[in-house]
Amino acid sequence: MKTVDGYLTVFLSLILSVMISLCLVLILGARENTRRMEVECVTDIGMNNILAEFHRELLNQYNLFFIDTSYGTENASYKTTEARLKDYLERNLSGDDLFLSFLYHNPVKLKVEDVVITGLSAASDEKGAVFRRQAVEVMYQRVGISYLKQIENWVNTVSKYDLNTRDILAECRNATADLEEWSNEALPKEAAADWKNPGAEVLSLWDAGILSLVVKDYRSISTQSADLTKYISSRKLLAGTGMNPAVTFTDGLWEQLVFQEYILAYTGHYGMEKENGYLQYQTEYILSGNETDSENLKDVVNQIFSIRTVANLLYLISDEERMQLTEAAATALAALFALPELAPLLQAVIVFAWAMVESISDVAKLLRGDRVPLLKSGKEWYYEIEEALAFDGSIEQAEKSDEKEEGLLYEDYLRILLCFQDKVTTTFRLMDIVEMDIRQTEGNESFRMDGCIDSIGADIKYSATDGRQYDIFRSYGY
Q1: Tell me: the pLDDT tens digits for 102-122?
Q2: What pLDDT score does 96 carry?
Q3: What does DSSP say about strands 67-68 and 469-477: parallel, antiparallel, or unpaired?
Q4: Residue 200: its pLDDT value, please?
Q5: Hey, CA dihedral for 272, 277, 280, 282, is it positive or negative?
Q6: Euclidean distance between CA atoms 83 and 46, whole angstroms
Q7: Sequence-ordered list of residues with C-beta below 8 angstroms from that of 311, at least 6 positions apart, any chain
Q8: pLDDT tens sequence across 389-409
Q9: What residues does 464 pair with on adjacent strands?
Q10: Which of 100, 143, 201, 228 has a 20 to 30 Å separation from 425 between CA atoms?
Q11: Secondary structure of the chain in HEC code, one letter for each residue
């Protein structure tokens, strides 16, 4: 009997078993890598879909990127964003939205098991720092360092001379009251009718309201008002989880100055009102927080008037020639009533009155668009002592010169006032303004800034038909 060797068959069997095992391993590895890649791609696409739903009107009016979690409804909820993300992920896995869906095949058969948003940055988080960061980034490329240093110098000057903290009106009232008390006791009854206290007359103009003196057409002042209880600074907030950890934002002095430039660029103020703004004097609202335009303007005018009065008083005291004039006027007036002991009190009141009259002139100039230096010199002084003591409050008298002056504009004084306001208060009042304006547009009647987010972190779980689980975390933001 003849024997046939089978070594070739054995060899092929061994080779084929190795090849088939290798092919199966490669196929399983390819499927596993495909699943992981699909998990990555679907997650990234889904997160980008969420970011693509930024609020268009907020971008158009304020150049900010935020996702409105109300999506045009009356209720803002972060859970809504979570549900939308899950929906996008499921659609991306199924391919139902593809135009040629019949060409799409899902060989790895994944499905979304769970979506949990673990982190999101709401605009109001960290006392408004999330909102400030975006506003600062908008302005960083527009504002020069030299200009910011100039603003810092103004602020340092105000601080150095206590221009914004000194209660000059109280000082004037006290000096005037002291003079009144002495004159009432010392003056005979027949002379009392001819007595005039220059400080009391100027203070009466202040008490009547200097806004009517410094605005050319008082009837043109806006009477618009807002119910502040409806806006973010007065309601309980929806809270996120804070600033995105991947974001660096120092929120220091320079950022504060840039943020103020954003305010002045995107809000209106007296003389430069924002078209279609709900309030006309929006920057003044941020500084004052009153319900009406007129009250906000009045409050800001009073603050600027106080700064100007302190600055003008400091100049008068430093000017020997003008101080000699006040001394001579006080001595002459005291001698007229044969009361030389009243001369020092009279001089103090005259100095206060002169500084206040000059300040009324300054504020009137600012509101009509002229410049006024923070600290004046002799050549920039307008009222002589005779004119100041005869001042009756007429605007025509305050508008003596139309020559172009050096100094600060009205909006520069607004910058200074903003520097001394708490940045959290400033931020939330600005968000009030944003809500007021956005709510005027169609479909945004219930818009709220604390319902807006600029970053989102999500933990997503996928599962396959063979029971394998895939977990992935992604954090996306603007």
Answers
A1: 555 556 678 899 999 999 999
A2: 55
A3: unpaired
A4: 83
A5: negative
A6: 12
A7: 161, 163, 374, 375, 376
A8: 888 887 654 444 555 568 999
A9: 110
A10: 143
A11: CCCCCCHHHHHHHHHHHHHHHHHHHHHHHHHHHHHHHHHHHHHHHHHHHHHCCECHHHHHHHCCCCEECCCCCCCCCHHHHHHHHHHHHHHHHHCCCCCCHHHCCCCCCEEEEEEEEEEEEECCHHHHHHHHHHHHHHHCCCCCHHHHHHHHHHHHHHHHCCCCCCCHHHHHHHHHHHHHHHHHHHCCHHHHCCCCCHHHHHHHHHHHCCHHHHCCCHHHCCCCECCHHHCHHHCCCCCCCCCCCCCCCCCCHHHHHHHHHHHHHHCCECCECCCCCCCCCHHHHHHHCCCEHHHHHHHHHHHHHHHHHHHHHHHHHHCHHHHHHHHHHHHHHHHHCCCHHHHHHHHHHHHHHHHHHHHHHHHHHHHCCCCECCCCCHHHCCCCHHHHHCCCCCHHHHCCCCCCCCCECHHHHHHHHHHCCCHHHHHHHHHHHHHHHHCCCCCCCCCCHHHEEEEEEEEEEEEECCCCEEEEEEEEEC
Cα 152 to Cα 141: distance, rounded to the nearest angstrom: 18
Whole-structure pTM value: 0.88
* Nearest of 418, 450, 443 to residue 152 by alpha carbon: 418
Q: Which two tokens stand for residue 178?
A: 């002291």
